[in-house]
Amino acid sequence: MVCPTLIHEYYEKVNPNVVALPQPKLRGPTGLRCPVCPSEMVYWTELHDSWHIGCPTPYNSHNWKTWRCDQLNHELALINLGTLRPIVSVSADWGPRVSTKGLTLPDLAAPPQGGRYHPYQSKPKQDPTTSTAKRAVVQCKRLSEGSVAQNHKKTANKGCHSQYCLGCCIAYGSSLCRVHVRPSTESASTPLVRDDRSLTPHQLSQIGLSQQQITQLRELEASTSAHGSQFPPSNVPARRPAPASQAQPHQWAQTSNSLGRRVPLAARVMLQKNRYDREHAAKQQSSALIDETKVVMITLWTNSEASQIVTGYFPLWPLLYLEQCELLIAAVVNAIGPKWNQALSVWNEEQECWCDTLVSYPIRRPSTLRTLIVKLQGVQVRMPLVLETNLPKNGPPSHPPSDHPAPSFTSLTEAPPRNTPSSPKTPYPSQLSVSSQDDSDELAPLEPEVKPNKSSIDPQTSNKYIDLTLLPDPRSPTQELPAAPSGSSSIPGDEEANSLLATPENVEYVLFEYSSFFTLQSDIDDLVRTSDTPPKRKRWPSSSVQLSSVLAWYKDQVHGCPKTKWMDHFGAQWHFSSSTMY
């Protein structure tokens, strides 16, 4: 409705000191208070060419106004210029009709005569000469092809396969037509629909059923028919097919113009069981063909006291993913619970350190090594335990038997010393006692108690070994021989040995220089290194050495020798360096 004034004088401004009112926008303030309540009115709804304003108070049902955009813009412009209210205007003063976005709109149509709306007089009149086009009529094509049927009609069905009428299609048309149904030629006693749902044994064998399963299927069908068939009776007349516009292929049909065969429920159950048996057998066969070279032994440390050994199969070995080992994942979840962050620490043999990784990350291992050491994050494992776990469990290498085995000694006191001094009065390193703890540990694996073979010894020695270190030095002929140890019993052959000792000119003396001590020492070190003990590492202490082990050694050496205690704690794994130790 057109009103001469929109913003009346009884509308109070929110800010009386501000002359200009805000421009209209959706949910924006109008700058005017409601005449009913002290709330500020807002532009509530945006219409096509007007604004719907009202109070924003909840459940408000008063002072709803509709202001046209062109009239509102006219009054706002005058008010912002200082014109006093009320502003009375007509539609000619407002300018063109505009929308809420400021776009110019076409003028509204003039109202009908009399001011009332007539339901049909306001509609435009149609020309009676013009009419809609009629639907195209399909002529029966049989009329131009030859003779027609008795009940021939000019109009044909456009859904017909041959574009014939009903009579011509039944008499001369193709049987593929799905629109014109042909009458049945079978007798009344014959069912209209043939029951061919059951399959022949040849068809069942082609599907994949064995002869035993076919026999069970026949017995199941016989029992089902005895207690009542699950299908409707076969003498139910066939329904008229849908027209061509609604025709849909059957769900068992291969094409739109072919018919499918319904498989009985018993046959479908047998097919599913047969498929399950074949898949189960194939799965068992595939699980039996496991490559043993891809089975890895994993040592898992869930705590610092004990470890757990599990076995995992990794198809891409030496590339592996820890998540592929179900036993490993189950052991970790059983140890720390389901709130696991999917992270583990793996021992790196090359860097000799722990490497944190996720179970979904790839890890590449040496193809010759099929062991893996894994621990939980935060678990402290002693380095000797890690090295002991990483060592191969094989025994020492077996050497082929020799025709002349080396002589052995039943005790360290009977073994010859490593070196012979040039002067018995001068103490050399070769005269050190071999009964110390370190030397006994090194020589223990090199002295198996094996009796010498008598046939391999020169008979001139009369089965006696002569210790040349006990003979006098030729450069000091007046030197007396050391006395024999007390408690030694006389054994056969002592007279011959004494005769050899009394005639030193018949014996070839073997004298070792002082420089040969280092050569013998290096030979012994090489023999020790060839044993089954792991090689010693250098640069002690590294980052892999735990601080607790260093503190334990420091506490232990307070009342003892630092070097001896160091050898007890770290000598089996690390090279000794006096400067680093002190």
Automatic annotation (TrEMBL):
- Ranges annotated as biased composition (Pro residues): 394-404
Query: Compositionally biased, Polar residues: which spans?
Result: 222-233, 420-429, 453-464
Composition bias, Low complexity = 237-254, 482-492
Location of region: Disordered: 104-135, 218-255, 390-496
Recorded protein name is Uncharacterized protein
